[in-house]
């Protein structure tokens, strides 16, 4: 009798498992096993066989996005080694009491390579190239009905290329957004067409910063302060590598460390090494704004309600944050205004001189770049070449911020803006 009942139950269970396996996207297999390189190859092969498979294309874009950080971390680990000690931190003290995944990351081997300035630029260039590849893939997703269900808490990424991937559920459980995040088995998100634009927008945002960093000449900054971050450094000042924990016995201060930090701040004045990259950075920011507009076009046409990452006003999202129509309308106004500023049609208010008489053309900062000095920008004189008379952005209008604060809450706007993209 028991056997007669058990057999159909087992068959039913196997059937359900096979249906789930068939429904699970190919990308999840590699994301949850931490085998991103294998996953990228498998998904590319799938697209070669079936170029119209936008689920595979979406999955490839996600895998490539995580690969960019895995490649960056793996390369960085070769140069950093146990350099936490440079700041007076004992690795064993830092590790004590931390969760096991983080303890494993901190228990690194000594640096295997000597860092050069050319190495750091190549690391950054590789990261930008990886992000561009992910953005290109995500931008090619066209099917408005595409779905990519992923158990995001089970995604594994080898952050430092040491063969010890960390599961996303560890990070999610400490984000404190909702209790649901702590349960990786149930934290399933059905990413859709709008989410492809969302991630592509973030790729562009990160690429823009990467291009700015590659545009500047940081050779002297590297020569004088790279030993703060890398264990072995090719520098014309080898004596910088010979001091460890030289604490003044009277005042208890690590004098070399303090002087190095002051030098790091002092050297924040950068000549442009490749000024054309500033235009590339602007293009990425414009693409980010375009993706941000596109994603909401798709979100607002959705009629389902299936484990949404970012819901429209008629949906319930997995983060259980209510999105109202007023929030969407206000955010779209913010995006339009940002586009006007990036296009140079509206100016950023200048913070010196008589108020309201002139503003900074942000577009020209990128298209007509000069030496970058954050302190002179703060003072105002670095903005002088870009001052114009014209329409000032509504971001300077108290009514705009009153609407933003009323809609999102005074202390929530920038948090939600990060989520909204």
List the helices and strands and how they pair.
Layout: H1 2-23, H2 26-33, H3 36-49, H4 54-80, H5 91-95, H6 100-106, H7 117-139, E1 147-151, E2 156-157, E3 166-167, H8 168-172, E4 188-192, H9 193-215, H10 219-225, H11 255-266, H12 276-299, H13 325-342, E5 348-349, E6 359-360, H14 362-367, H15 374-379, E7 387-388, H16 398-408, H17 413-420
Antiparallel strand pairs: 1-4, 2-3, 5-6, 6-7
Helix pairs in contact: 2-3, 2-4, 3-4, 4-7, 7-9, 9-12, 12-13, 13-16
Walkthrough of the structure:
With 421 residues, this protein is mainly alpha-helical. The protein folds into 2 domains: 25-218 and 270-302, no CATH class; 330-420, no CATH class. Helix content is 54%, strand content 5%. The protein contains 17 helices and 7 strands. The protein has helices spanning 2-23, 26-33, 36-49, 54-80, 91-95, 100-106, 117-139, 168-172, 193-215, 219-225, 255-266, 276-299, 325-342, 362-367, 374-379, 398-408, 413-420, and strands at residues 147-151, 156-157, 166-167, 188-192, 348-349, 359-360, 387-388. The protein has a 3-stranded antiparallel β-sheet with strand order 5-6-7, with no helix packed on it. A hairpin with an 8-residue loop joins strand 2 (156-157) and strand 3. Helix 4 runs antiparallel to helix 7 (117-139), helix 7 (117-139) packs antiparallel against helix 9 and helix 12 (276-299) runs antiparallel to helix 13. The radius of gyration is 25 Å and the shape is globular. The chain starts with a helix and ends with a helix. Mean pLDDT is 85; it is low at 1-22 and 175-181. This is Tetratricopeptide repeat protein. Keywords: Signal. Residues 1-23 form the signal peptide.
């Amino acid at each position: 009798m028991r056997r007669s009942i058990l057999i159909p139950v087992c068959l039913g269970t196997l059937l359900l498992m096979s249906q789930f396996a068939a429904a699970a996207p190919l990308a999840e297999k590699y994301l949850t096993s931490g085998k991103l390189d294998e996953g990228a190859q498998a998904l590319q092969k799938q697209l070669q066989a079936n170029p119209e498979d936008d689920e595979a294309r979406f999955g490839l874009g996600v895998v490539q996005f995580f690969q960019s950080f895995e490649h960056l971390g793996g390369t960085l680990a070769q140069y950093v080694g146990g350099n936490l000690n440079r700041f007076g931190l004992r690795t064993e003290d830092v590790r004590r009491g931390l969760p096991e995944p983080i303890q494993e990351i901190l228990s690194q081997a000594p640096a295997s390579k000597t860092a050069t300035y050319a190495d750091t630029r190549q690391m950054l260039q590789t990261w930008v190239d990886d992000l561009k590849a992910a953005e290109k893939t995500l931008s090619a997703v066209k099917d408005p009905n595409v779905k990519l269900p992923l158990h995001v808490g089970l995604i594994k990424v080898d952050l430092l290329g040491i063969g010890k991937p960390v599961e996303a559920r560890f990070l999610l459980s400490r984000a404190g957004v909702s209790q649901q995040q702590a349960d990786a088995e149930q934290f399933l998100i059905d990413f859709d067409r709008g989410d492809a634009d969302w991630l592509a927008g973030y790729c562009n945002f990160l690429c823009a910063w990467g291009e700015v960093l590659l545009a500047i000449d940081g050779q002297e900054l590297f020569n004088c302060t790279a030993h703060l971050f890398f264990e072995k450094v090719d520098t014309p000042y080898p004596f910088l590598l010979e001091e460890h924990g030289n604490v003044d016995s009277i005042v208890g201060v690590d004098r070399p460390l303090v002087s190095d930090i002051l030098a790091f701040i002092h050297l924040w004045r950068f000549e442009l090494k490749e000024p054309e990259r500033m235009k590339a950075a602007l293009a990425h920011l414009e693409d980010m704004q375009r993706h941000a507009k596109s994603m909401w076009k798709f979100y607002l046409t959705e009629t389902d309600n299936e484990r949404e990452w970012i819901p429209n006003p008629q949906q319930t999202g997995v983060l259980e944050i209510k999105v109202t129509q007023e929030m969407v309308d206000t955010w779209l106004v913010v995006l339009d205004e940002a586009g006007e500023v990036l296009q140079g049609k509206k100016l950023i208010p200048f913070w010196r001189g008589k108020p309201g008489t002139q503003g900074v053309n942000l577009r020209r900062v990128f298209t007509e770049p000069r030496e970058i000095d954050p302190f002179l920008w703060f003072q105002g004189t670095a903005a002088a070449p870009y001052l114009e008379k014209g329409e000032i952005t509504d971001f300077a209008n108290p009514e705009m911020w009153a609407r933003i604060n009323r809609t999102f809450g005074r202390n929530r706007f920038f948090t939600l803006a990060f989520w909204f993209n």
